[in-house]
Amino acid sequence: MKEIITTLEKRADFLQLLLSQADTILVALDGLSSTAAEKLSKEELCDLAAQIADYNAKAVKSEHFNKKKLAIRANMTFHEGMLSTVEEMLASLKEIPVDGLYFSDPAIYYLAKKYDLVDRLVYDPETLMTSINDGQWWLDHGVQSICISPLLTLEETVEILSALHRAIVTVHGRTLMSRSYRKLLTSYQEIYEKDVDLSHNKEVTLIEMKREGTMPVYEDETGTLIYSDNVLDSFDFIEKVLASDPSGLLIEGSYLPIEEQLAAVQAYRQILDGEDSTVIGKEYREQFHGEPLDSGYYEQKTVR
Questions:
Q1: SS3 sequence, the chain?
Q2: Looking at residue 63, what is its pLDDT?
Q3: With a threshold of 0.90, does the pTM exceed it?
């Protein structure tokens, strides 16, 4: 069964996502995550895990029960001095019912082996998972699945999906284009003596010389992240994607209003349930015609 995964951008939106058609809620955790999403404390993570467990216990009696899962986006790069803290956090996950750990740094894999957590791992190096051999190596070493880079063409995406099967593909939302562990906005602010605090500010955008759209840029304690100027939608291509047998569809919530994120989850669920993707896509685009919806890199190479 193909699952729908979506991100929790704000703690306050959790209940709406829990009641949505998403199968897995992907959350950011303080100390493990580098993202524009609100980062949870370990105590908040435990609270969400308890709510999901309670939801599943009650919903199991329902005729249309669909188990909800909780996963962590552990996508930071960890330096030597950070590993003891990371290991402590991973050890605590033995006691917390978390179903997935989306990681990019191989250090997570080695620590997960120590605590028998490898089967919860999802290899997600964001823009870097671009080859069958890379994905196959991780699958051969016990991770539950891998995430394909959202910056590939449709042809490249289908080729990898068809070969690996246990692969997740990003089908909707603003995609991460670039990451720097430098505090670029803080440096800009200091050099040009800007009065507005640009760190942890979700109102900041930039325009690249070769692009027309505005790209959200966000700086936190982990560095600077630049997101795409468009909102990827896969409605014109989803049938080809599904025919290649992905294990999951990822809907990124970064910089999306929660109403739009929930509508995207509902739309892709309807498609998975057999409804016409052309009709669903048309309805979605009409509803959110003000958004820069786009086919991303399905039809073009990343470099423009």
A1: CCEEEEECCCHHHHHHHHCCCCCEEEEEECCCCCCCCCEECHHHHHHHHHHHHHHHHHHCCCCCCCCCEEEEEECCCCCHHHHHHHHHHHHHCCCCCCCEEEECCHHHHHHHHHCCCHHHEEECCHHHCCCHHHHHHHHHCCCCEEECCCCCCHHHHHHHHHHHCCEEEEEEECCEEEEECCCHHHHHHHHHCCCCCCCCCCCCEECCCCCCCCEEEEEECCEEEEECCCEEECCCCHHHHHHCCCCEEEECCCCCCHHHHHHHHHHHHHHHCCCCHHHHHHHHHHHCCCCCEECCCCCCCCCC
A2: 61
A3: yes
